[in-house]
Amino acid sequence: MNSIKRVLLIEDNPGDVYLLRQMLSENSSFKTELINLTYMSEAEAYLAVSAVDVILLDLGLPDVQGLDAIRRAHAVAPGIPLVVLTGLDDESVAVQALQQGAQDYLIKGQIEARGLLRALRYAIERKKMQSSALAMAQQMAHSAEHDFLTGLPNRMLLNDRISQAIALATRHAKKIAVLFLDLDGFKHINDSLGHPIGDMLLQSIAERLVKCLRGSDSVSRQGGDEFVILLLEIDRAEDAAVTARRILQAVAQSHAIGQHVLHVTASIGISVYPTDGLDADTLIKNADTAMYQAKENGRRSFRFFKPVMNVRAVERQSIEEGLRRALERHEFAVYYQPKVNLMTGAITGAEALLRWTHPTQGAIAPAQFIPVAEDSGLILPIGAWVLREACAQARSWLDAGLPALTMAVNVSAMEFRDDGFLDRLFAIVGETGIDPGSLELELTESVLMKHAPLTAIILQTLRERGIRVAIDDFGTGYSSLSYLRKFPVDAVKIDQSFVRQISSAGEDTTIVKAVIGMARGLKLRVIAEGVETLAELAFLRAYRCDEAQGYYFSRPVPPEQFAVLLRNGIPEPSVVA
User: Is pLDDT at 122 greater than 90 in this prediction?
Assistant: First the structure.
């Protein structure tokens, strides 16, 4: 009871006021202040500026009668418990009073001090319970429509807002735009720094997205590192491009997360109503499709949706579905392209290259399915299968009495960053019985340079186990030889785009000379890719390139044909003295 400090009594009968004041003063263990007002208008003015613990309300006031008195009191003070006080003993009126928000219904002449105090206390407790239940319901409703991590609207709420925006845009002859944003390389941050850091980065991204928009626009987190932005009532599609550029710049600025300074970029797809869709689901789907085109065109950019993209999206989905079944259906094969020692003409190595023959579409080019495998994560089981096949084949050739060689296997960024990469690699080496020194992993420059400290640790572990490492497509990534001193690598492969320019004696010739010279200075093997002509071969020999591969020597071939090449050597006129 000592929680009842102030009671507002709205009562115009002096006798009733006196009686109630006496009842409240009977308990001397605490003091309850009774404020008496005669008119509802007075009470409304008072409650607008003052707080009380409970209201005692007579239903027969000079300026308001009956249930209207409850409605007016509740309107000005909805959070304060209210107890009705009346001389009318009418059960139907009591029920209606409770339905209007009263916590209790007391009959004058039928109450005593203890009952009054108990009624006031219970009224306060019930009101608190109702308020808690209401707050919980509101919280549940908010949670059902908002992302728990960022507080942004979720997919359900965004779809509703897009539907409303479409109705307004139609009425006002305007357009709306939907932007689908996906972060580039966010998985690497999660994998290397942990999900708590990744979550804080997502919160930082969310704050920046909100600041890039007008108050009438919306941004939603769809899950993972995907966000969808709704731009209301734009005049031209180009207006969305202005916002997309602003978002790309804001996201790309450094993020201070704990002790880390993180950099991340984004890819954005844009769809516009009514051109690209007439409902929320279609607009979001088409913006998502355009976003994938932005990723395929170099990332950190935006693309507007075009109908032709749907054709590509269907093709991509078909490829992904096919890839998911290809392993179990044994549709994959590994072909091998020889690496030739340019001084002796002997085959010294082989590069394992994945080939896929679809049951209905036939042979599918690696350039079509490898990016899909990487984006979908399927590259992990597929890459492990290729590695096992290549190692087992190298061992099989050796057991058959064929010359020893180095087996080169490409490793994607996703495989290299996977937590189980090293364990899986060493297990395959042990299972197949291949000599670790005859296995060479080919990694691109971009794979090596991301998270350089972790890369150095992995490379050192590989070196300690005797496994070689070559830098693939050298010169197309960071184009710097300085980091070669930092990493324990064994070879560099000159990209075929530079080899192709050898006969023109242009700038790329200078690059090839520089790569060969510096790599030899660092005691690294140099391998030229894509050799197709006698002129290219002669140039590489003249500048003491160690090895080469390309169509001049042999196309990638099945293991049986490669065994013949190993046994008999490269036929003339491929190798020139």
Answer: no
- Helix ranges restricted to H, 253-334: 280-296, 307-326
- Domain residue spans in the chain? 6-144, 155-305, 317-568
Q: What b/e string do you get for 211-220 counting C-beta neighbours within 10 Å, with b at 16 or more?
A: ebbeeebbbb
pLDDT for the residue numbered 340: 96
**Alpha helices for 146-236 (secondary structure H):** 155-172, 186-193, 195-211
Burial 488-520 (b: 16+ CB within 10 A, else e): ebbbbbbbbebbbbbeeeeebbebbeebbeebe
Which helix (H) or strand (E) element contains residue 22? Answer: helix 14-25
Tokens representing residue 249 in the block: 């710049």
DSSP β-bridge partners for residue 266: 183
Q: Going by DSSP bridges, is the β-strand pair 547-548/332-341 parallel, antiparallel, or unpaired?
A: antiparallel
Q: Sorting pLDDT into bands at 50, 70 and 90, what band is 429?
A: very high
Helix, strand, coil share (%) of the chain residues, nearest 5: 50, 20, 30
- Report residue 479 as tokens: 């184009």
Strand order in the sheet with 218-223: 218-223, 226-234, 175-184, 265-273, 302-304
Cβ–Cβ under 8 Å, residues 207 and 142:
no
φ/ψ of residue 340, rounded to 5: -115, 135
Q: In what order do the strands lie in the sheet with 82-86?
A: 33-37, 6-10, 54-58, 82-86, 104-107
232-249: burial string, b at 16+ Cβ within 10 Å, e else? bbbeeeeebbebbeebbe
Question: Which residues, listed in sequence order, are joined to residue 347 by a DSSP beta bridge?
Answer: 340
Q: Considering Cα of 478, then 486, then 421, then 473, what sign does the dihedral take?
A: positive
Q: Is the pLDDT of residue 110 over 90?
A: no
> Beta 547-548 vs 525-528: how paired, if at all?
parallel
CATH: 3.90.420.10, 1.20.1070.10, 3.30.70.270, 3.40.1050.10. Which one for 155-305? 3.30.70.270
CA atoms of 502 and 540, how far apart (whole Å)? 9
Q: What confidence tens digit (pLDDT) does each residue in 175-228 have? A: 999 999 999 878 778 777 888 898 999 999 999 999 999 888 999 988 889 999
What does the angle CA 319 – CA 320 – CA 321 come to, to the nearest 5 degrees? 95
CATH architecture observed for domain 317-568: Alpha-Beta Barrel (3.20)
C-alpha–C-alpha distance, residues 296 and 355, integer Å = 22
Task: For domain 6-144, say whether CATH 3.40.50.2300 is its number.
Answer: yes
State residue 371's pLDDT score. 86
pLDDT digit string, tens, across residues 478-500: 445 566 777 889 999 988 888 88
**3-class DSSP assignment, residue 474:** strand
Mean residue pLDDT of the chain comes to 87
* 8 Å CB contact between 277 and 286: yes
